[in-house]
TrEMBL record:
Residues 214-374 form the Helicase C-terminal domain. This is ATP-dependent RNA helicase CshA. Residues 32-203 form the Helicase ATP-binding domain. Residues 442-476 have a biased composition (Basic residues). It comes from Candidatus Lactobacillus pullistercoris. CDD domains: DEADc, SF2_C_DEAD. Residues 433-488 are annotated as: Disordered. Residues 477-488 have a biased composition (Basic and acidic residues). It comes from the Bacteria. PANTHER family: DEAD-BOX ATP-DEPENDENT RNA HELICASE 47, MITOCHONDRIAL, DEAD-BOX ATP-DEPENDENT RNA HELICASE CSHA. Belongs to the DEAD box helicase family. GO terms for cellular component: cytosol; ribosome. Pfam families: DEAD (PF00270), Helicase_C (PF00271). One of its GO terms (molecular function) is hydrolase activity.
Length: 488
């Protein structure tokens, strides 16, 4: 469906054309008419399907331009997604002179308060915690809000924000419209719909669209100690334009980033311990194509909306099937094909089958490339770089080039140049600290603890001696039962 068929005004159609969009995505085509009519909507759609425009365009069209009050609130799970949403709404509403502001934790709240005081936004985008903080301080007023949007609702549920969201919705009690978007629909999300929405229309993308048909999904069976070398060889052979590598923990992300950089790859990592400024700097470089590989945890990558990602490498299999869908959804966007590769240790095969049941698509086994194949891939990329360099102005280098040719053959010089541009994967040894694998999810394992030291929820189980505890409570043989959450 063309955007011109959706009853949008000329200013918005101009902004859409300027952004390069031609046809509406399924979620946009079904949601925009309902939202324009003022109806409550529950939309099930993955990240990257155009949800921002699906709720943003109706909000922008229905704004009262001269009214100096917050008319719409959009709640996002992460700072990065809040910033991206604010930027996209600003671009779409530029011709409408719509003021859009974003508030999120980790930034100077004093500056946010001053900005809110001097220029009241028509649309406010924010993370749950910071929005609630402003509400309690009285620095924002939601009395005249007409529309509230809950974006990536399942992510906010996973991050423990449901109570904050319910509090925010109570502050915006006079709203006339609530829009909720989520990739999955667990019961707590549906309860929000029942409690806070009025006869919502359900917009659900067909299952085949949720299983990422444009993404070729592979798995590599490998021991923990083999994974890093195999991943490097795969990157050399596949030559991704932009790739995201997922690690399960912050430590893993740091180790993978250092290892990739040591082997000459243009890589950087993001996780929750980095400052907001550092994370935004890395993401900006990645979006601009100045980084080839982004290494990230699930938490840090939530809400990432970066076009052009060609490959996703799951160095660690995700802790739940929904996270897998979110991860691979970083590629295969805007009608482009993508590739995902998941590394699976032998005792994680059963867990992988659970993921396949959710996505309704089997992962194809992938044979790890040999060192010779990896070298061939490196040399192919090096030759492409040389061809690009030759088209530049080389005049000022001729004198030094002639001097080198007097001492070395042209063949030796080209070979040395190729050696310099390519990467020898065996030259730099990289050690990645092994992590305990996830529990086996196959049949026949009904006990609550698995043999690899995890319980059924994937949490590490450790026993420690505690003589003080033993004195307090006899009969436990001096052992204190401790559960450590393995999530980022």
């Amino acid at each position: 469906m063309k955007f011109s068929e959706l009853d949008l005004n000329d200013a918005l159609l101009k902004a859409i054309k300027r952004s390069g969009f031609e046809e509406a995505t399924p979620i946009q085509a079904e949601t925009i008419p309902l939202a324009l009519a003022g109806k409550d909507v529950i939309g099930q759609a993955q990240t990257g399907t155009g949800k921002t425009a699906a709720f943003g365009l109706p909000i922008l069209q229905n704004l009262e331009k001269q009214h100096k009050a917050i008319q719409a609130v959009i709640i996002e799970p992460t700072r990065e997604l809040a910033i991206q949403t604010q930027e996209e709404l600003f671009r779409l509403g530029r011709d409408e002179n719509a003021r859009v502001q974003v508030v999120y934790g980790g930034a100077d709240i004093g500056r946010q308060i001053r900005s809110l005081k001097h220029h009241v936004p028509a649309i406010l985008v924010g993370t749950p915690g910071r929005l609630l903080d402003h509400l309690k301080r009285g620095t924002i007023n939601l009395e005249e809000v007409k529309t509230v949007v809950l974006d990536e609702a399942d992510e906010m549920l996973d991050m423990g924000f449901i109570q904050d969201i319910e509090s925010i919705l109570k502050y915006a009690g006079k709203r006339s419209q609530t829009l909720l978007f989520s990739a999955t629909m667990p019961k707590p999300i549906l309860r929000i719909g029942e409690k806070f929405m009025h006869n919502p229309e359900i917009v659900k993308i067909k299952a085949k669209e949720l299983t990422a048909d444009l993404i070729d999904q592979y798995f590599v069976r490998a021991k923990e100690s083999e994974k890093f070398d195999i991943m490097c060889r795969l990157i050399d052979v596949q030559g991704p334009d932009l790739a995201v590598v997922f690690g399960r923990t912050k430590r893993r992300v740091d180790e993978l980033t250092r290892g990739l950089q040591a082997r000459g790859y243009n890589a950087a990592g993001i996780h929750g311990d980095l400052s907001q400024a550092r994370r935004m700097s890395v993401l900006k470089r990645f979006r601009a194509g100045k980084l080839d590989i982004l290494v990230a945890t699930d938490v840090a990558a939530r809400g990432l909306d970066i076009s052009g990602v060609t490959h996703v490498y799951n160095y660690d299999i995700p802790q739940d099937p929904d996270s897998y869908v979110h991860r691979i959804g970083r590629t295969g966007r805007a009608g482009q094909n993508g590739i995902s590769v998941t590394f699976v240790t032998p005792n994680e095969i059963g867990y992988m089958r659970t993921i396949e049941q959710l996505t309704k698509k089997k992962m194809s086994p992938l044979r790890p490339p040999t060192d010779d194949q990896a070298l061939h891939g490196q040399l192919k990329q090096a030759k492409e770089q040389i061809e690009e360099l030759i088209h530049g102005d080389l005049g000022k280098y001729e004198e030094d080039a002639n001097e080198l040719l007097e001492n070395y053959s042209a063949l030796d010089l080209v070979a040395a140049f190729l050696k310099n541009l390519s990467k020898d994967s065996t030259a730099v040894k990289v050690k990645i600290t092994p992590e305990k694998p996830l529990p086996y999810k196959g049949k026949g394992r009904r006990n609550s603890r698995s043999r690899n030291g995890h319980d059924r929820r994937g949490r590490n189980i450790h026993f420690k001696r505690d003589r003080h505890y033993n004195k307090r409570k006899r009969g436990n043989h001096g052992r204190d039962f401790v559960i450590k959450n393995n999530k980022d």
